Design the sequence.
């Protein structure tokens, strides 16, 4: 039986689409309270508008650029202030770049490289370092970092869905994963097996 998430408070970055959206909607359905952030304010609004009235009161949304430390700090503070605690964080914001990874490496300009590294490396570092400040997150707390990569065709003969990845994220945030620490989980349909 899955651990209860009722009353747990989680922060999800990149929650307006993809893995973040799927994780957020799954956590809401299981009774969690959520602080949701993304740079896509329209996507956040659309997601909230799709929720029933009861679930809307269990969500805080904010347009946040995770590469800006002050914005991340304020969002985490506001989430804790609204819900009284933070039990975990899922870093699911990410980018393949403005051209979505379809360019030769020698064509990548410094500005594009900096953008990708800022969102995919610096941003999650800022979120983790702010979330782990003493007194902010409950102990023990959970942090799940997600990302996408280009892999060969999987043995399962299909691409995975955002929901399949979100299911692993939800598990890692739940008490069911209380003995999991410092592990890398590959959710790739066996591509790297």
Sequence:
């Amino acid at each position: 039986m899955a651990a209860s998430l009722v009353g747990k408070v989680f922060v999800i970055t990149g929650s307006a689409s993809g893995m973040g959206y799927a994780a957020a909607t799954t956590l809401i359905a299981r009774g969690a309270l959520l602080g949701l952030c993304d740079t896509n304010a329209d996507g956040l609004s659309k997601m909230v508008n799709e929720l029933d009235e009861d679930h809307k009161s269990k969500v805080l949304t904010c347009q946040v650029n995770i590469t800006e430390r002050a914005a991340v700090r304020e969002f985490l503070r506001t989430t804790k202030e609204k819900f009284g605690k933070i039990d975990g964080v899922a870093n699911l914001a990410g980018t393949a770049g403005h051209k979505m990874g379809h360019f030769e490496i020698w064509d990548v300009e410094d500005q594009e490289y900096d953008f990708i590294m800022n969102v995919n490396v610096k941003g999650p570092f800022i979120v983790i370092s702010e979330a782990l400040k003493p007194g902010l997150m409950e102990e023990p707390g959970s942090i799940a970092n997600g990302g996408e990569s280009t892999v060969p065709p999987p043995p399962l003969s299909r691409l995975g869905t955002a929901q399949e990845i979100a299911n692993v994220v939800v598990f890692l945030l739940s008490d069911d994963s209380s003995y999991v620490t410092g592990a890398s989980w590959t959710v790739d349909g066996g591509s790297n097996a």
